[in-house]
Amino acid sequence: MRAGLFSKNGARAQSVDKMPVRVLLVDDNIIYLRTVSALLSNKPEIEIVGCAVSGEEALEMVDVAQPDLILLDLKMPGMDGLEVTRRVKAEHDAIRIAIVTASCDGEYRAAAAEAGADDYICKDRLTSELRRLLEELSS
Q1: What average pLDDT does range 50-78 have in this prediction?
Q2: In whole angstroms, what is the distance from residue 17 CA to residue 1 CA?
Q3: Are the C-beta atoms of 54 and 77 separated by less than 8 Å?
Q4: 1 pLDDT exceeds 50?
Q5: Residue 138 — very low, low, confident or very high, per pLDDT cuts 50/70/90?
Q6: Neighbours of 72 (CB within 10 A)
Q7: CB contact set of 16 (below 8 Å; sequence gap of 6+)
Q8: Domain count, the chain
Q9: According to the model, what pLDDT value does residue 50 have?
Q10: Residue 14 covered by a domain
Q11: What global pTM score does this model have?
């Protein structure tokens, strides 16, 4: 958790404010990516720090964007979400990774956990599960 000393208007804050969770979105479906980005942009507890359409692009963005959380698609052409998870966790273990996918079966869930993912969320449950995930990150 990062703390801020100033309020949004620049005046000294009376108390320490929580900074938003920095989120990197990764999905090869650009329409889904835009939809989720628009949905999450309205939440003050979230700051979208980047969007990537491939695993390779996501890896390039991690050091620059410095996300707290990566919402990562499982199935993408080229480098899939499992490989991205392994590589990110090998270098940045503190970054939380939630696999967000339409494949909601146990086999993929187990593979995601084995790769080092912190969470596994079905795309149709993203909005409801995201609140829980953000609460965990803030505590």
Answers
A1: 96
A2: 10
A3: yes
A4: no
A5: low
A6: 27
A7: 3, 4, 5
A8: 1
A9: 96
A10: no
A11: 0.83
DSSP 116: T
The one-letter code for the residue type at 92 is H
Within the chain, where are the H helices?
A: 30-41, 55-65, 81-91, 106-115, 126-138
Taking the C-alpha atoms of residue 4 and residue 77, their distance in angstroms, rounded to an integer, is 40
Q: Is the dihedral of CA 58, 59, 61, 62 positive or negative?
A: positive
pLDDT value at position 134?
Answer: 76
Residue 5 is assigned to a structural domain of this protein: no
Say which CATH number the domain at 32 has.
Answer: 3.40.50.2300
Question: Residue 27: which of 82, 75, 93 has the closest Cα?
Answer: 75
Each residue of 68-104: pLDDT tens digit? 999 999 999 999 999 999 999 999 999 999 999 988 8
Residue 15: inside a domain: no
For tokens 């991690």, what's the residue? 62
Sequence-distant (6+) residues with CB within 8 A of 46 are 20, 21, 23, 40, 134
Q: What is the token pair recorded at 40?
A: 């999450």
